[in-house]
Amino acid sequence: MPITNTMRRFKMQSLLSSVLISFLIFVTTSAAFLDLRIELTHVDAGRNFTKPELLRRTVRRSQARAMWLSAVQAAASGGVDPTTLTKSRILVSPGEGEYLMDIAIGTPPLPFTAILDTGSDLIWTQCKPCIKCLKVPAHPFDPSKSSTYSALPCAGKLCQAVPNNCSSASRDQQHCFYSYGYGDGTSSDGALATETFTFGSVTKVRVPGLGFGCGNDNGGDLNGGSGIVGFGRNPLSLISQLGIRKFAYCFTPLLQFQSKQSTLFFGPLANIVGRGPILTTPLLQNPSIPTFYYVSLLGITVGKNRLKIPKSAFQLRKDGTGGVIVDSGTLVTGLVDVAYEKAVQAFKSYVKLPVVEEDTGPFELCFKTPTNDTASVKVPQLVFHFQGADMGLPRENYMVEYTDRVLCVNIFDNGDSSVIGNIQQHNMKVLFDLEKEKLSFAPAQCDKL
What we know:
By secondary structure, the protein is an alpha+beta fold. It is built from five helices and 26 strands.
């Protein structure tokens, strides 16, 4: 009898421990994001592209996205709401995102992959009933099969943050509707609602009541994803809804993504412990376009020479144009035209090899090397001088072998503004500290973190 009682007590303790462990793993508040990591997958992983194909795809996506970023700024400078182009179109370009994160929606949870995007705000995926749906990996979410789905009314605060919401007399005023038209031709129309989402790669975190777009009428291309998770500064983003004040990412090099994972971090895990010094620069805000993350770039060095670039070239202007954006969805850095022209001249002067005149795909400056050993070609050091921080880039973060005996500079002309792409951030842990309004970065072996 004593043995039986002991066994019962043991079983009860085991049951209580299991319940406690489950509670700790599936935390249901935003506090869960104080210590969380999420594995990221590149959008082209597992798609068997050749190296030239992969480079063409990634650079062209970067150029298209950079054009979109410039268009948003131009709209803002003209007095147009930067989230709207016409009555039913907004300036977002999800098809040009570079990294996917695994999440799940509803109760019971339906897994799907979504594009991580620091350049937009809304969280959304496709939903039933599907009037028109994109061809994506995941089945559309069925709200009728989830016990935690709840439509948002027009009077809700999040509804007011949605462009083109349900204020029209033809809409049901008890429900909030959104209509998004994207810069790459993708579109989504549906209901704004709240739902329980599950995040995390090892530890799973369930977050209830998260506002999202439930798209019933969609078109275009999500580039291998089944939705988007916005990490911008506006109220609709994951960061804003959960009050997350600190997050970081670490991207593995482009040509290693098939075998090595990139990672997204929250809370204490976002703190940097890198191989080199930790550098920090202020984050800036653009009142005309509050979604984006801006930094102050003061100058550029190529080789041993600081380029003679006017101070005004990188400045964020009062009308909302110009400036320098740090973006997860743009692969390659684009420089304002005057800075790009100076950089091209400096590279040509230093490298002293013939410039390739024939078509080099998306690359604007390429050199013909004497042998296939492009790694032996001496190239100048490239340094971005941010306010309070000098980012000296490793060679592989700005030079790329495009084809045999063709070595290209991995930056491009971005017209009126600049964007720091993620290839220049590869094998760096990059921390966004929204409490202190600081951006920090340090060298890291991203697949080992």
